[in-house]
Amino acid sequence: MTGQKPVWLITGCSTGFGRELVRVVRAQGYRVVATARNPASLDEFAADSEVLVLPLDVTLPSQVSSAVQAAEARFGQIDVLVNNAGYGYLSAVEEGEESEVRAMFEANVFGLASMTQAVLPGMRARRQGHIVNISSMGGIIGFPGIGYYNATKFAVEGLSEALAKECAPLGIKVIVVEPGPFRTDWAGRSLKVPATPIADYAETAGARRAAVQGYSGKQPGDPVRAAQAIVTAVKAENPPLHLVLGKVAFEQVEAKLAAFGQELAQWRDLSLSADFPTGE
Question: Potential cystine with 84: which of 12, 76, 96, 188 (Cβ 3.0-4.6 Å)?
Fold first, then answer.
């Protein structure tokens, strides 16, 4: 990343990772476009001439376009996009309410894609830039009770990997961040649950839902340290495509990959048997 004062555009800055990222990025001396659906929640930054506070609901294309245009008009360019806006919905697959599921996909997946599309022309023109997509350990591991949230984050993972390969020749780097449990508002006010839980899932989805809600405010992950880690990764000469954050996430992702490798090896012969015989 070149230049003395890069410009970061961060979505979902009212709480959690987004808010802490604004603080950490400003402490580094960078300029920031801080966005939230309710910009009044960002009054802390309003007096800072190096912070542009904007209203932004990533599910509204007009606001996405306006925010990017305003950022470029004020600062000339966007060097780093952090797609942080999003939320969780805890339900068994059968319990899921279609309207709630679709709304979450609009924010977590389509809103992220819309923001990415909006900043890419400027980054392509300059042949540099960073796109940071906030995923989750739930983008790698499926858990009972959060299948639809898993689905949004698995989508972010696939989109990010493809984007990284498309943009590498253009000088644009992609980082997909996979946090474990952190003391953000994800498991608190921002979390949504089904209106009609099904008793048969009490020991799986219900137990997971209770556990997640029960540890809100007690998670081991520190959002400030997470924000610092993200900035460190962006500043690296060769940043990682995947950045797992927190001990819980690291250990569970490591275990998932090991189990996946074992399963792959166990069923190798059956997998390979599905091809035409050699020479046919």
Answer: 12
**Contact present, 209 and 90 (Cβ < 8 Å):** yes
Question: Architecture of domain 7-250 in CATH?
Answer: 3-Layer(aba) Sandwich (3.40)
Name the residue with tokens 């001396």: 29
Interatomic CA distance for residues 141 and 52, integer angstroms: 36
CA torsion sign, 66 to 69 to 72 to 77? Answer: positive
| Boundaries of every domain in the chain | 7-250
The pairing of strands 80-83 and 129-134 is parallel
Residue 139: both structure tokens together: 């983008």
Work out the burial of residue 191: count CB atoms within 10 Å of its CB; fewer than 13 is exposed, 13-18 middle, 19 or more buried.
Answer: middle
Residues in the chain: 280
Dist CA 120 CA 130 (whole Å): 10
The pLDDT of residue 1:
45
Active site residues: 135, 149, 153
β-sheet bridge partners, residue 33: 9, 52
Take residue 129 and report the two structure tokens written for it. Answer: 């830039």
Q: Has this prediction a pTM greater than 0.85? A: yes
pLDDT band for 185, please (50, 70, 90 cuts).
Answer: low
Highest mean pLDDT among 11-15, 40-44, 184-188, 262-266: 262-266
